[in-house]
Amino acid sequence: MKNVLILIATVTLIVGQDKDRSKPVFSKISENELSSTERQRLNRVKGKTITYNYNLVSVSNPRNLVTSKILSLNLYDNLFIEATRKMVEPWGENNYSWIGIPNEGKVQGEYVILELTDNGITGYIFYKGKKMNITPLGEARHVIYTLDPSENGLEHPLEYSTGSLKKRHSAKESSSPENLEKTITNPTSRRVDVLVAYTTAAKNGASPNIASIINGAKTFANQIYNNSKDSNLSYYPQIDIVHQVEVSYTEQTMAINLSRLVNSSDTYMDNLHTLRTQYGADIVILFTNTGNCGLAYDIQVSSSGAFAVVKVDCEYTQRYSFTHEIGHLFGSKHELVLDSYPCENFCYGHGFTASNNSFQTVMAVKAWGSINRILYLSNPDKSYNGTTIGSSADEDNMRVHDVRVITIANFYHRPLSVEISGITDMFKYESETLEADFEGGNETASTSYQWYKRLPPTTSWTTLGTGQTQNITMYVNDIEVKVVATNSGDQATDTHYINYAGGGWFPKSRTNKPPTNYSLKQNYPNPFNPSTSITFDIPKAGFVQLIIFDITGRKIKTLINNNIELGQHSLVWDGKNKEDKYVPAGIYFYRLITEDFEKTNKMVVLK
């Protein structure tokens, strides 16, 4: 381990000033303030040869970051970072991914990528040639430490007989992949659904929460694809984690783990094949806690071979293993010098290493250690700080992903379903927009929508229009709306009732699919600016309150304080308080209260 002295530096995180900024959330702490469990977790970080320069900090309110446009971070060695928010994306139950660009993107390849959860902040910082991890230790305490890529462990299996790096890229490699032509159109993303399983050993060995590592892997993969795409590519992948599951499995070698993962009838992890069908997963990844950093089943796989194993610690500390192994499944290779085939077909599908060894792309490897790995796939149409990161003849991993994503994204898909979301109660002359949300179907094919309406008691349907959204105006009747979604010849239908509210907010009789249980759904969109929709179900008529609170518990506004009928109900909060003024950015809560039920959800206002 390098520089074992722990540097307890002042670390202050300020999220802007004025309306863009809030109070600091990081503050300096000493090692003496840690609990015994937190010390154990810190010692695990200190024991990694890849890490040095530690900073211990306490985070007073990590969710302040969700609404922040500017993040300022003072670190050791006079290192100062100011990052501008590029993206906030919710995931799971009130968790968020936060991506920022330091110093207005003046230096290419610099990022702050954070996962915000109830367990704290898990993150990675690329800045001025340094790579830093943020890891929660417990409670609100975190350690920030610098990574030394030259101390990386073995990235790929060695040949046992010679001790040299295997001239192989995956576990199988039975034949040379076919040659693929590069197409030229505007880029369009294509979703690849991934099922992620993890062993108990991987969960216990994960420095932060395992869910943060998995979602962080997705965030990094999608950032790499976004960085690497250009106007010469017809499609580029975007990863979606459709399901996470722990498996009861005792780990063996990485090759054995992979073999058992692929086999659907050997009694090892066989349930994953059922889950793959259920969730329509194109690719299955298993996180383990042993072996090398990763191993894919084959180069340019078919559906039956779309499996890979990733070591959880490699993914967290190095942030590329997940994307690297998926790259093999697409058909990408390591450097040209490691190709086990004569360079006849598919020569361009190799990773890239700069001639001066200053950096390498995601698919490039070294047997021991690593040079600076950037968040790019090789692509001769892209450059990194002035250096072209590929060649059309040999190194163009993005070309492989471009052409293969259509096939990969169609390995599995769930049955097509569609659901109409939107308001259920409207006043006379009020206009609202309904939206059709679909799942399943062929994700690489377009989905069309045909809308219809009828006014009860009329039984015939009148055509409304097409498109994923439809505007509705209320006059003096209840309205029944229907949408028919069509995808690759498959169709799905949903109907939606809108009740004429007359002189009040709520329906007199008609409801959408009367609920049997109470439910308060997550608001949509979230985060939002300035308005959001709140939907809830009540299985019987009665007195209902729906109240907005701020993070201090202060009541902001009462949205409902009335008797209402059973059914599903939706309304829009316009982001204003009881004084009819817009609330500032921040975290808020909305609470549904009935005689038999009470629930509170979080929501985030952005500015």
List keywords for this structure.
32 strands, disordered N terminus, Immunoglobulin-like, mainly beta, 4 domains, 607 residues, Collagenase (Catalytic Domain), 5-stranded mixed beta sheet
Structure description:
The protein is mainly β and 607 residues long. It has four domains: 13-148, no CATH class; 190-409, Collagenase (Catalytic Domain) (3-Layer(aba) Sandwich); 413-513, Immunoglobulins (Immunoglobulin-like, Sandwich); 514-607, Immunoglobulin-like (Sandwich). It contains eight helices and 32 strands. The protein has helices at 36-46, 200-205, 210-228, 254-262, 271-279, 312-318, 321-330, 397-409; strands at 13-15, 22-28, 51-59, 70-74, 80-91, 95-102, 111-117, 120-127, 130-138, 141-147, 188-199, 235-247, 283-288, 294-296, 307-311, 379-384, 387-389, 417-421, 425-426, 431-439, 447-454, 462-466, 469-473, 479-487, 490-500, 519-520, 532-538, 542-550, 555-564, 567-573, 586-593, 598-605. Strands 1-2-3-10-9-8-7-6-5-4 form a ten-stranded antiparallel beta barrel. The protein has a five-stranded mixed beta sheet with strand order 12-11-13-15-14, sandwiched between helices. Strands 19-25-24-21-22 form a five-stranded mixed beta sheet, with no helix packed on it. A hairpin with a 2-residue loop joins strand 7 (111-117) and strand 8 (120-127).
